[in-house]
Design goal:
The structure is a single chain. This protein is mostly helical. It contains 18 helices and 6 strands. The longest helix has 36 residues.
Length: 502
């Protein structure tokens, strides 16, 4: 696999160093969650009726019955993020070892193909398609919510039915808590979410990719916006908002960690770019670990300040919880100085989400390209546009499949589906380290996970634990997706494979 990737006709330009890799990871992790999904992680997805479909698996097991919706972590999201950081640290070390051995585009799919064989690689590739698609749907809905907030700041008010998803499990309320739309379906479509995906699809088809330098600038803008929010928000923290600190106990902490986890797909983005690194055996581990440290600190800071500024229940189902908290407080006595802070945070969030959508759509196209190159998907997915030299067909399919659902569903539903895909990919990467240690112990490793198989085993167990914090219906949808994938594999892909013997 490595020798094939080094052929002149297949080789990618190697120009990335550890700083650019870290910026790439931070760009993906921050833009996809810290401004959007943090609200549904804090507030949960509550329901008035106990239903097995909306109940986390761990609650169904421990409580022997359904609970009313997915619980929120509340102010204890800071603890959820510590748990996520531990899991990501363990998994990141596993990614680093495989990336230092197999510096090829395709990330978890490529690692699994090299360690666990074609069938498991197909499963993870099929899973990554789900993961990237739902991640971008979630970010697109968050982007639209921030566009609405920017228009509100400018004094532009449009019909909300064309600025919000058609399905709203918690409804839509104004700042006074008055219902604009009741919970459930309403006649409407989230036009900004739909448009941003299609616009960026056109950009990607034409091959106008963001350079490493441009991405570094975007990351600086995002970090500046976050630090500004933390700095100004600290003076509006009310200790009473921290009580109760953990309103839903460990179940809420676990559910909060499970829902926020997908944002750490930035690890996958770092490893996807390993083929374009100057020294991947050194730079990829540095990029992964540095991404983890910086993003965890920023996430905990935002979570602590946000839950101290406003009651934790008020951010449930909000696609723009950070800027809406600033808006709410800017209307209170003494909050006038937050008016301009809100504008800067909105602009920083929009820049962050644009870069995230670009990175994730590129990552999705890379996975499809790798699977098509291995003859597991039709050749058209790896066909290059004659003028723009990009995988145009794969990019357009990805864009349309992401854009339409983005106008229909809420951020929480997308995050749940993306999370289970991310965690499942991390489980297989961790197992891949153990398998490759047994199958090929003599191969040189630019980085080796310490303490033998202990860390990969712990990574696997913790990821499964976080998966148990997701609603049962998410598991059902995930298994249906995998069954469809297996049918495609056995009736189509396996017969095209270079290993098929007839």
């Amino acid at each position: 696999m490595i020798s094939e990737s080094e052929r002149p006709e297949n080789a990618l330009t190697k120009h990335l160093g550890p700083v650019s890799l870290t910026a790439l990871g931070i760009g993906a992790v921050i833009g996809s969650g810290i401004f959007t999904v943090i609200g549904t992680a804090i507030g949960g997805n509550p329901s008035k009726i106990a239903d097995w479909k909306g109940s986390p698996i761990i609650d169904l097991i421990l409580h022997h019955g359904a609970v009313a919706g997915r619980p929120g972590a509340g102010p204890a999201l800071a603890l959820s993020l510590v748990l996520v950081a531990i899991v990501c640290g363990l998994t990141g070390l596993c990614y680093a070892e495989l990336a230092s051995m197999i510096p090829i585009a395709g990330s978890a799919y490529t690692y699994t193909y090299a360690t666990l064989g074609e069938l498991i690689a197909w499963i993870i590739g099929w899973d990554l398609i789900l993961e990237y698609a739902f991640s971008n749907m979630s970010v697109s809905v968050g982007f639209a919510a921030h566009i609405v907030d920017l228009m509100d700041w400018l004094g532009i008010h449009l019909d909300p039915k064309w600025l919000s998803p058609a399905y709203l499990p918690l409804g839509l309320q104004d700042l006074a808590g008055k219902d604009i739309f009741a919970a459930g379906w309403h006649f409407g479509f989230d036009i900004p979410a739909f448009i941003i995906v299609l616009l960026l699809t056109v950009v990607l088809v034409r091959g106008i990719r963001e350079s490493a330098r441009t991405n570094n600038i975007m990351v600086l803008v995002k970090i500046t916006a976050i630090l500004l929010f933390i700095g100004f928000g600290l003076s509006f923290v009310h200790p009473s908002n921290y009580h109760p600190f953990s309103p839903n106990g460990f179940s809420g902490v676990l559910a909060g960690g499970s829902i926020i986890f997908f944002t750490y797909i930035g690890f996958d983005s770092v490893s996807t770019a390993s083929e374009e690194c100057k020294n991947p055996r050194r730079d990829v581990p540095i990029g992964i670990v540095a991404t983890l440290i910086v993003c965890t600190i920023l996430y905990i800071g935002v979570a602590a300040v946000l839950t101290g500024m406003v009651p934790w229940q008020t951010v449930a189902g909000d696609g723009a919880p950070v800027v809406n908290a600033l808006k709410r407080l800017s209307l209170t006595p003494g909050g006038e100085r937050l008016h301009w802070v809100r504008l800067i945070v909105v602009l920083g969030a929009l820049v962050g989400m644009i870069s995230s959508i670009l990175v994730f759509q590129l990552g999705q196209a890379r996975v499809w390209f790798a699977m098509s190159r291995d003859k597991l998907l039709p050749d058209v997915f790896s066909r290059i546009h004659p003028k723009y030299r990009t995988p145009a067909f794969a990019t357009w399919v990805a864009g349309i499949l992401v854009a339409i659902p983005s106008g229909l569903f809420d951020v929480g539903t997308f995050a749940e589906m993306s999370n289970i895909g991310t965690l499942f990919a991390f489980v297989l990467v961790s197992i891949g380290v153990i398998v490759l240690r047994a199958k090929d112990p003599a191969r040189h490793r630019g980085f080796r996970v310490p303490f033998g198989p202990l860390i990969p085993i712990l990574s696997t167990l913790f990821c499964i634990l976080l998966m148990a914090g997701l609603p049962a219906i998410t598991w059902v949808r995930f298994f249906v997706w995998l069954v469809i994938g297996l049918l495609v594999y056995f009736f189509y892909s396996r017969k095209r494979s270079e290993f098929y013997e007839g």
